[in-house]
Specification:
The chain is an alpha+beta fold. Helix content is about 40%, strand content about 15%.
């Protein structure tokens, strides 16, 4: 609205009053340039039947405040699982401890743990790398084979993991190992010595 004195376009509202008898809203303005006050009267009209007709103020609903959203139901926090059901993947020792309880031969366990400690993933403790996941999954496969009494296949799996890297031990690779003849390494200390030799060759390469 322009100021009637200086025709400046900016002003501020000083006072607002509604007049129900005249169906109008009266506002007092002050010009931001010259500072003089002036009054404006605003009416609500609709165009019906070829003429503008005033609308009573009672027919104009007051703006209703927006209702706040309904509170979301609180979810109950699940109970903590038992300690024997926790399987962290941030380190190999926890997995290997579970596998040892499942019946993994000490020689294979020692070889797998030695490989993990010598690897850069074991030293830097990076979280959930593909090699670490492949290592833990392969350890689970070894434990399963030992439960089934197939220690030769489990030993071949460990030797292949040390030689080729645990990231290569995929299901189709495991099927190839299962179809292969038993490993030539014997049980006990000879198997641990053979695994240590493979570790040395892998580190040298």
């Amino acid at each position: 609205m322009l100021c009637p004195h200086c025709h400046y376009y900016q002003n501020r509202v000083l006072e607002t009053r509604s007049n129900a008898s005249e169906n109008a809203v009266r506002r007092r303005h002050a010009c931001r340039k010259c500072g003089k006050a002036f009054t404006s009267i605003q009416r609500i009209e609709v165009y019906q039947e070829g003429a503008w007709q005033p609308v009573p103020l009672a027919a104009v609903p007051d703006p209703q405040p927006v209702a706040p959203p309904a509170p979301r139901p609180r979810l109950k926090r699940p109970d903590n699982p038992a300690p024997d059901r926790l399987h962290p993947i941030t380190g190999a020792e926890h997995w290997l401890a579970d596998i040892e309880r499942d019946g993994l031969p000490p020689a294979l366990l020692e070889g797998m743990l030695a490989w993990w400690n010598e690897s850069r993933w074991g030293k830097h403790r990076t979280q959930a790398t593909w090699t670490q996941l492949a290592f833990t999954l392969s350890a689970g496969r070894v434990a399963f084979l030992c439960k089934q009494g197939q220690h030769d296949i489990a030993r071949a799996l460990v030797e292949a993991g040390i030689e080729h890297g645990w990231q290569a031990l995929k299901p189709e690779y495991l099927r190839g190992i299962s179809a292969a003849p038993p490993a030539a390494a014997s049980a006990g200390d000879e198997a641990a010595a053979a695994i240590r030799d493979m570790l040395k060759r892998a580190d040298a390469a």
